[in-house]
């Protein structure tokens, strides 16, 4: 379990480092995809299809937030 937590922490830091030059809208998209993936995984009991579907829907919602 400690290895999994360390792997998640390292991958999160690397991912966030790659997001340093994103626009506000791009950051919203990435955040929405992350939240959607977690929600999809929780709602479907860890199903990979639910996780990917949640990420897709969350990304679209995040992209459209604040749009005029």
TrEMBL record:
<feature type="domain" description="Glycine zipper 2TM">
    <location>
        <begin position="29"/>
        <end position="66"/>
    </location>
</feature>
<dbReference type="Pfam" id="PF05433">
    <property type="entry name" value="Rick_17kDa_Anti"/>
</dbReference>
<dbReference type="InterPro" id="IPR008816">
    <property type="entry name" value="Gly_zipper_2TM_dom"/>
</dbReference>
<protein>
    <recommendedName>
        <fullName>Glycine zipper 2TM domain-containing protein</fullName>
    </recommendedName>
</protein>
<dbReference type="GO" id="GO:0019867">
    <property type="term" value="C:outer membrane"/>
</dbReference>
């Amino acid at each position: 379990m400690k290895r999994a937590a360390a792997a998640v922490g390292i991958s999160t830091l690397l991912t966030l480092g790659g997001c340093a030059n994103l626009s506000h809208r791009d950051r919203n998209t990435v955040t929405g995809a992350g939240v959607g993936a977690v929600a999809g995984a929780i709602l479907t009991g860890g199903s990979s299809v639910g996780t990917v579907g949640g990420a897709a829907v969350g990304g679209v919602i995040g992209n459209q937030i604040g749009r005029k």
